[in-house]
Structures are given as structure tokens and as C-alpha cells.
């Protein structure tokens, strides 16, 4: 009997979770040294296949640039490994001898890893490494458009892990993914935490699953060129960043905001770096390609070259064009150039003042990138600090490539392929998610302070005595009334005795 695709997908997911749970229970007994050796072998194996996986990804998804995918795979493997290799994630991880507090790490259990189509292999490798480092198992749901390359990356990791002594089944996946299976994976009783990287609807589903979840929101990243910036150097970095993997990293610059008094120099530098400026007619044609309906990005342009996107709009540009730019004044869901485009397409906003520049950046963030990232080019430290204090973002890249700077390639930020948006973006963290986010910590604390617990005061005891006596008197009176109200004859001596007791209580 042939089951339909959804049923096959769900059954495969359930089997993978079952194996992962069994393997993770065995993995619990592994020492820090054993865990670290497994993580090292997996990182090295994935790194060695970076180019092969990059080629598979571009071939399968039709997005991005092989050489850039290779770099992302390298960041997701060895750069991530270097950042976590010395972290303690097993047993006692910290002792405060002064305050007598000992911290002990323990894993979540089974991680559900949701993978995007834009960065499939690098994200799968990254999530696998931080899961293994923390003695968790992981079951991955690939994006339907990137199944083959994602599963291949996971197979490479699984083979290396088992060779290094890891239990078989510790790394699992769904080779026939479906939305039904992904949703059930996130709600599965044996899944303990979710790492969700994908669209807004997917992230919302992760947060509503009833499980602890790390989800990331959209990144409509403003890029402000302030008047003190080194224009030549800044523009070169911006074009390199925007054209990196054809804009598929969520931290890539999405909109240019330029001070009026440097605008002409900025435009000239962009043209010198392969940018094509669209006229009004060409802009109108491209708008129809960017969105098919207001606020909804056309997936056909994601991860495509500037030349190809222009051709889709019927616009002819030089073959060496790296980015497309159109001047814009408005921000909104119905303004195609102002939304997150995940492609080498820019709107250019002209700011008449520093305050207006901040206002435009804020509007762009509120449109769809709140909590994610902002790119700033300036030589004025006061400006940088003010932006850091005022902008609702979790990371601010200054004078660098925003796309790969946010993931830790050109900055001191933690190497990561899952970038939290914090409370600004409705996420549980604003961190670059890494191994420390996949361990729980229990604490053993000795008593270090002597305290004297005060005894009840005399007045407190007197009040309690009075309350008790009042209750006793009330009980006597009730008994008298009860007997007096019954049909049975009431003994006068009994009543007299009760009254005497009441009087004695009151007298005392």
C-alpha cells in the first residue's frame, strides 16, 4: 500500500526522533573529552566538503554563488568549532569557591532543527555542531527546495560523528519534508527545544508549539552612510556585502540611507563599484518583479544576480553589474523597494539631517527588521554610540560588511547562522545563538550566611490568646443557645454553669 507524501514524511520524522532520543540517552554518559573529539571530527569533515556542498546547494536551489556558499560552509563548520571548542558543556562547568555555588550543565535532549533554503548546508552543519557540543541529539527538517544538499551535509556529519564514537541516530533528518511533518516535529513529545531559521510564519509556529524555541525574525537591515564615513572604503564594502551570495544572508544591507552633503560622492563610488542606478521607468518595471502583491516578496528574485533580476524586469544592464539601486522616498509594505529583498537590490534614501536619517532607519526597521541588525558607516564614535543606544536592533555593524559581519566573519561577534532578534523582534534572545543556548544549568549552593529568625512578639502572642478565648466563649454561648432552642428539657443547673464559665472567661 502506497502512503501519501505527508504520511511518509510524518512517519520518517517519528522514526528519526525515536532513534535520536535513544542515542541521546547513551550520549549523556560521554565525558567532555569524548564530546569534544566528536565535535572536532564533525567540524573537520564538514569543512573538507565545503566546496562540494556549496556546488550541490547552488545546483539544487538555483540561489547564490558557489564561492560564497563555500565561505558560509567554512564559517558554519570550523569558525563555529573554534568559537565553542573550549567551552565546558559537560558536568561541572563553573565553581565559585567564594560564594560556594557550583554550576552543572545538562542538555535539553532532542533538538528540532528547521533549515532555510537560503543557507541550507551551512545552517545544518552549524546546528549539528552546537547540538553535539552540548550532548543533545538533533533531528533536522530541511527546506523542500534544499533537501538533497541539506541531507548530504547531515550525512557527512553523521558519518564523522559515528566514526568518532557517537551513538548512531544522534543526528537525524527528514528526507521527504512536508509542512505537516515539520509542524508535528516541533510539537513531538520527545522534542525538547526548537532551533527555527526560516520565514515569519515558521518562526511563529515554533513559538506557538509549546516547546522552548529559538526563532529568528526577518532582517530588513538599514545601512546608514553618515557624513564622516570613509566613502570609498565604505561603498566598496557595502557592494561586496550586498552581492555576497546574491544577498541571501538575513543580515545583509537592505536599504541605503545617505546624508545629503555626501550623496553625489556616494553615487559616484557606487557606480565605480558596479552599481546600476535605475531611472524612473526602470524602477517601475523592477517594482513589479520585486513583489507580486503588496508586502510579499517574489521568491523568484531571492539569491539571484543583479543582471538576472534586471532581465526579469525587462531592463538591460551591463553584464558586470553587481547591484541595482533606485532612489526612494517612501517606506511601507506597498513600497517594493523598502521591504527585505534577499537579493542585490537597493533603495537609496537621502537624509537632509542626522535626525531624518535616524527616522528613516527606524521606519525601515519597524517595517520588517525590528530587532535584527543595522549597518553603520561613520568615523564619529558619538554617532555610533547614539545609534547603539537608540536603535531597536540586536547587533550594530560599524564600518564592515553587514552580511558576514553579523555572523562573525569580520567582527568579534560569535560565529552563528541563527541570529536572535531579542524582545524587539519577539524572540527569546538577541544573541548570535551558539552552544551555550542549548544547555541548562543547575546550581548547588551551600549556606554562607547566618541569619537569626525572630520569635513571635509578646503582643502577637496576646492577640492570638485573645482570639482563641473569644472562640471558646462563642462555642459556649452557641451550646447554650442550641440547648435552649431544642425541644428537650433544659437543666437550669447546666445553663447556670455555662453562664458562669462565660463570665469567668470575660473576667480573665
UniProtKB/TrEMBL annotation:
<dbReference type="GO" id="GO:0016620">
    <property type="term" value="F:oxidoreductase activity, acting on the aldehyde or oxo group of donors, NAD or NADP as acceptor"/>
</dbReference>
<dbReference type="InterPro" id="IPR013357">
    <property type="entry name" value="Acetaldehyde_DH_acetylating"/>
</dbReference>
<feature type="domain" description="Aldehyde dehydrogenase">
    <location>
        <begin position="11"/>
        <end position="272"/>
    </location>
</feature>
<dbReference type="InterPro" id="IPR016161">
    <property type="entry name" value="Ald_DH/histidinol_DH"/>
</dbReference>
<dbReference type="InterPro" id="IPR016163">
    <property type="entry name" value="Ald_DH_C"/>
</dbReference>
<protein>
    <submittedName>
        <fullName>Acetaldehyde dehydrogenase (Acetylating)</fullName>
    </submittedName>
</protein>
<dbReference type="Pfam" id="PF00171">
    <property type="entry name" value="Aldedh"/>
</dbReference>
<keyword id="KW-0560">Oxidoreductase</keyword>
<dbReference type="InterPro" id="IPR015590">
    <property type="entry name" value="Aldehyde_DH_dom"/>
</dbReference>
<dbReference type="InterPro" id="IPR016162">
    <property type="entry name" value="Ald_DH_N"/>
</dbReference>
Amino acid at each position: 500500500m502506497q502512503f501519501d507524501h505527508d504520511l511518509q514524511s510524518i512517519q520518517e520524522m517519528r522514526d528519526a526522533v525515536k532513534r535520536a532520543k535513544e542515542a541521546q540517552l547513551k550520549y549523556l554518559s560521554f565525558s567532555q573529552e569524548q564530546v569534544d573529539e566528536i565535535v572536532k571530527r564533525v567540524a573537520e569533515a564538514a569543512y573538507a566538503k565545503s566546496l562540494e556542498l556549496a556546488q550541490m546547494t547552488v545546483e539544487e536551489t538555483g540561489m547564490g554563488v558557489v564561492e560564497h556558499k563555500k565561505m558560509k560552509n567554512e564559517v558554519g563548520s570550523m569558525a563555529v568549532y573554534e568559537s565553542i571548542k573550549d567551552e565546558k558543556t559537560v558536568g561541572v562547568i563553573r565553581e565559585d569557591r567564594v560564594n560556594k555555588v557550583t554550576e552543572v550543565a545538562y542538555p535539553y535532549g532532542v533538538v528540532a532543527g528547521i533549515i532555510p533554503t537560503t543557507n541550507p548546508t551551512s545552517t545544518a552543519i552549524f546546528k549539528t555542531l552546537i547540538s553535539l557540543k552540548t550532548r543533545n541529539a538533533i533531528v533536522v527538517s530541511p527546506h523542500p527546495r534544499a533537501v538533497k544538499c541539506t541531507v548530504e551535509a547531515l550525512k557527512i556529519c553523521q558519518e564523522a560523528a559515528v566514526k568518532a564514537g557517537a551513538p548512531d541516530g544522534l543526528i537525524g533528518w527528514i528526507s521527504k519534508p512536508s509542512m505537516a511533518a515539520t509542524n508535528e516535529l516541533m510539537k513531538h513529545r520527545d522534542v525538547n527545544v526548537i532551533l527555527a531559521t526560516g520565514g515569519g510564519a515558521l518562526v511563529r509556529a515554533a513559538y506557538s508549539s509549546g516547546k522552548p524555541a529559538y526563532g529568528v525574525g526577518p532582517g530588513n537591515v538599514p545601512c546608514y552612510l553618515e557624513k564622516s564615513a570613509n566613502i570609498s572604503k565604505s561603498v566598496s564594502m557595502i557592494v561586496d556585502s550586498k552581492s555576497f551570495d546574491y544577498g541571501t544572508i538575513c543580515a545583509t544591507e537592505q536599504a541605503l540611507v545617505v546624508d545629503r552633503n555626501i550623496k553625489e560622492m556616494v553615487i559616484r563610488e557606487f557606480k565605480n563599484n558596479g552599481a546600476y542606478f535605475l531611472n524612473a521607468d526602470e524602477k517601475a518595471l523592477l517594482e513589479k518583479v520585486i513583489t507580486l502583491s503588496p508586502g510579499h516578496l517574489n521568491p523568484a528574485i531571492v539569491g539571484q544576480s543583479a543582471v538576472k533580476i534586471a532581465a526579469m524586469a525587462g531592463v538591460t544592464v551591463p553584464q558586470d553589474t553587481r547591484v541595482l539601486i533606485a532612489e526612494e522616498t517612501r517606506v511601507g509594505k506597498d513600497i517594493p523597494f523598502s521591504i527585505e529583498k534577499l537579493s542585490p537590490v537597493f533603495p537609496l534614501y537621502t537624509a537632509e539631517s542626522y535626525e531624518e536619517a535616524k527616522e528613516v532607519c527606524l521606519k525601515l526597521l519597524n517595517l520588517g527588521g525590528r530587532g535584527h541588525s543595522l549597518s553603520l558607516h561613520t568615523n564619529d564614535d558619538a554617532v555610533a554610540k547614539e545609534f547603539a543606544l537608540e536603535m531597536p536592533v540586536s547587533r550594530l555593524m560599524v564600518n564592515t560588511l553587514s552580511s558576514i559581519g553579523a555572523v562573525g566573519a569580520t567582527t568579534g561577534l560569535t560565529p552563528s547562522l541563527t541570529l536572535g532578534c531579542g524582545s524587539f523582534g519577539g524572540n527569546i534572545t538577541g544573541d548570535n545563538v551558539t552552544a551555550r543556548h542549548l544547555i541548562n544549568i543547575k546550581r548547588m549552593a551551600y549556606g554562607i550566611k547566618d541569619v537569626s529568625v525572630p520569635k513571635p512578639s509578646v503582643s502577637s502572642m496576646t492577640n492570638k490568646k485573645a482570639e482563641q478565648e473569644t472562640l471558646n466563649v462563642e462555642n459556649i454561648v452557641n451550646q447554650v443557645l442550641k440547648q435552649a432552642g431544642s425541644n428537650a428539657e433544659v437543666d437550669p443547673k447546666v445553663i447556670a454553669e455555662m453562664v458562669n464559665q462565660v463570665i469567668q472567661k470575660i473576667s480573665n
